[in-house]
Amino acid sequence: MDATGKVAAMTGPKNGRQRSQLGRRIAMSIVAFWIVIAISAPLLAPYSQGAILSPESFSFAKDASILGTDYMGRDLLSRLIYASRSTLGFALVACLIAFPTGVSLGFIAALSGEGSILDQLLSRVVDILMSFPALIMALVVLGTIGTSNVAVLAIVAVVEATRVYRLARALGLDISVMDFVAVSRARGEGPIWIAAFDLLPNSLGPLAAEFGLRYTYAILLISSLSFLGLGVQPPSADWGIMVQENIQGLVYGSPAALIPAFCIASVTVGINLLVDDLIHRTNIRIPQELSGE
Question: What angle do helix axes 204-227 and 76-111 make, rounded to 10 degrees?
């Protein structure tokens, strides 16, 4: 190896670690920024989300903030801050419902044995639900039963729970053949004990990474539904509906529709960077059943 190769060999891993640390810090800063904004929205927003400041659309009224007004003359910055609570909060609640449901059913199917009646029943139901594109299924259900916050949360939770189920089942099948699980069964421990103290602790890494991914997908799905008019309903603020409301401003050169779209992109990119960093640092292994996806 020549001198150049030696220098590259010595500096390459170090530079790679530095870039990884820099990316992690940027991602954590983005996520932390939006968490603070969402929690402190009433304290940070200059006006209420429905306050009309000007009769003119997409203008910089006298009392408006630096971003100006939206299509109804409301302060864009205030609505953007309040919208962070709806977008991030709804997605978080949906994931908090989806994860316990998906993980519990996945572990139950795994412990019942691959190919058992219960495993086949749960897996076929999940396969049927996953055969429909998430947005199409949400549109059909919400168009049938009507739009409400509860309905939006329920459909997003069901969509995400099916994906969590597949991962939890695959993890459960991998772990259930380990020696420590055999020892637990020999001691007479029941399925609930094995799932709580054997399967769950050894699945936390992949499940934590999956939670981040599911959270980003939930944000995108809720924002898409709001953009189509079936998500969060006016006058409440939501990033998706803000894009839809202000899209006509592009004709007049206003960035009112692009700003909430950028907010959605920044959150999803930040969370995905954190998930990638978690996978690389903890060397999370994807179950063989899912490695082809």
Answer: 130
